[in-house]
Amino acid sequence: MARPVLPEDLPQEANQAYGCMAIALGLTALVMVVNLLLGGNPSGVLGLLLTLGTFSGTQALRRRARYGRTLATICGSVLVLIQLGTIVLIVALAATFGALAVILTTLIGLVIVALVVATLVFMFRPSVTAFLEATPAPAR
């Protein structure tokens, strides 16, 4: 039986990827709640699910599960594409929304995209790859 991953075994980049996705998850949830409170529809459910998938992948990565990086990469890539598409759509329909709503939504969307891209970059750093490829020592 393999020993658990100790904090000192964990590369700093894996923790940074996890932190970025925790912030992105909070922002995505906040945007969805505000949208619902303002009478909008729950159209952000897919984005929230993809953010949860990416966050779950970073959690699995920290436990040295190789599938975590794959899960986070797939969910994160689709999330970035959807976020960018949403930003373009909101900017294109700016006359329908108020100027403040367009600015805030665009800024929050860009922050989420930046956090997800940073997560993807951190997950493919050489130290994280070495961490995933290392065989943990057996527990005593």
From TrEMBL:
<feature type="transmembrane region" description="Helical">
    <location>
        <begin position="20"/>
        <end position="38"/>
    </location>
</feature>
<feature type="transmembrane region" description="Helical">
    <location>
        <begin position="73"/>
        <end position="95"/>
    </location>
</feature>
<keyword id="KW-1133">Transmembrane helix</keyword>
<protein>
    <recommendedName>
        <fullName>Integral membrane protein</fullName>
    </recommendedName>
</protein>
<keyword id="KW-0472">Membrane</keyword>
<feature type="transmembrane region" description="Helical">
    <location>
        <begin position="101"/>
        <end position="124"/>
    </location>
</feature>
<feature type="transmembrane region" description="Helical">
    <location>
        <begin position="44"/>
        <end position="61"/>
    </location>
</feature>
<keyword id="KW-0812">Transmembrane</keyword>
